[in-house]
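Notes from hallway chat w/ T.B., transcribed later so I don't forget. T.B. wanted the structure written out for a chain they're using in a teaching module, and asked if we could keep both sequence and C-alpha cells in one place. Agreed to drop them here.
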Amino acid sequence: MRPGIRDGEAVIDVWLSEFPFPGFLEPIRERAREFEKAHPGYRVDIRGFSYEELPRAVAAAAARGAAPAVATYYAGASQLARDVRTRDGRPLFTSVEKAVAGRTEILGEPVVLGDFLPGVREYHTVDGEFATMPLTLSTMLLYANTTILRAAGVASVPRTWQETTAACEAVARLANGPRRAIAWPVDGKFVQHALAQQGAMLTDCGNGRHGRATRIDLTSAALLDYVTWWRDLHRDGHYLHTGVPEDWAGTFKAFADQEVALRFSSSFDANYMVRAAAEAGFDIEVGVLPRNGALPCAGNWIGGDSLWLADGLDEATRDGALAFMQYLNSPRAAAQWHKASGSAPATRGAVALLEEEGWFDLHPHHRATGEQLGLRTGPPEAHGAVLGGFHAIQIVMMEAMEDVLARGADPRERFARAQAQAQALLDDYNAYALGAGPETPDCLAVRV
C-alpha cells in the first residue's frame, strides 16, 4: 500500500467514477477543498475514471502496492470490489462499518451510517455489515405524459402492472393517440428491479450477501411473471420495442416526441424528462415504478456507485478517508450533490434539509425517488444481488428478452437456456476469483 503521508500531509487518494456529463465530479472536488480547509494537514487527491475501467485500474494498482485509499465501484461491480487482492493476497477493501468501529464522529465529522434510509442501508450491507457508503444513487421510476392519460380517461398514473396494462389499453382507444403506449429499454436492470419488488432472489446465499453467490436462477416464478407481462404488452401492441439493446436514448426520444405516453427509466433521468415535457408542451408526472399488484413491494433495485475503503491504511489516512466519506454524506453536502447530479438523497438528514429549503415543492418530480426507496417490506436481501461477472450475465438476460420480444420465443424455454449460459459465466468468474480459472474469463471480457 502506498504510504499515506507525503510532503508532511496525510494524503487521501480517492478514485471516482466519472460519468459522461460536463463537470460531473466538480461538486465532489469542491467538497474536497472544503474538507481540506476544515482539516489542515490533510489533502484529498481525486482522480476520475470511466466506471467501466475503474475496477481494472484499482486491481492493477493493488497488485503494484499503490491502491487508492478510497475507490468507487458501480453497483453491478460490488463482487469485483470484494475480490480485489493486494500483492500479498489479502482483500484490498474492508467494511466501512468495521473501520468506524462504533465511533459517533471521526476528526469531528459526525458518523452518518445510522442516518441512511433503511432500504439504502440494506442494499449496502454485505455479510451483516455496512460495507460501502453511497456516493451516487438511483432507482427506477415511471414517467407519465398526463396530458395523454387525461385524454384517455386515466385519472392517475399507474402503480401496478395491472393498472399499467389498463392505462395502455385506454391510450390505445384514443382516436388520435400514439401508436404505442409505453416504452422502456431492454436492460437487465429492469428484471432485477422486478425481482426486488417481488422479494425474489437472483442467486443463492441471500443474493450473494451472506457468502459468495454460486447458483443463479433465471427461471423463478417472479422472473417469468415479469417477462410474460412484458411480452404480453408487446404482443398486444402497447410496448414500443425499438430493437436496440439498452436503448435509453431511443426510448427517451419516443417519450419526448409523444410517441408513447409512459416510460420506465432511471431517477437520474428526472430533470431531462421534465425539461423535454416542458419544451414539447405536455404535462408530466413522475411516479413509482409499477409492481406486481398481487404482492406488496418488497424492495428496489438501486444503482449508482459507492465508496469502498482500503484496508491496512495508516491511522491518519484511514481516519481522514472515513471522515471525508462522512462529510460527503452529511446533509448539506448530500443535498448539494443531489441538486448538482440528480443522485437521490440517501439520508434522512439530506431529505429533511431539502424539505426545509422547499426544494421538493419547487421540484416535485424528485419526490418519487424517496417514495420509491421507501417501498420495502423485505426480505432485505431482495434489494439486489452481489455476484461476479454481473454485466456479462445481464447481457445474457437481455439477449433472452430480445428473443422473447422480437422472435416470439417461449419465456420459460428461452430463460432456461439463458440460465445455463449465466451459470457458466458465474462458474468461470468464481474459478477466476478463487485462482482456479482462466486468467481472463469470458465474464470479464465485457465491461463490468
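Follow-up for T.B.: The mean pLDDT is 94. Might be a good example for the class.
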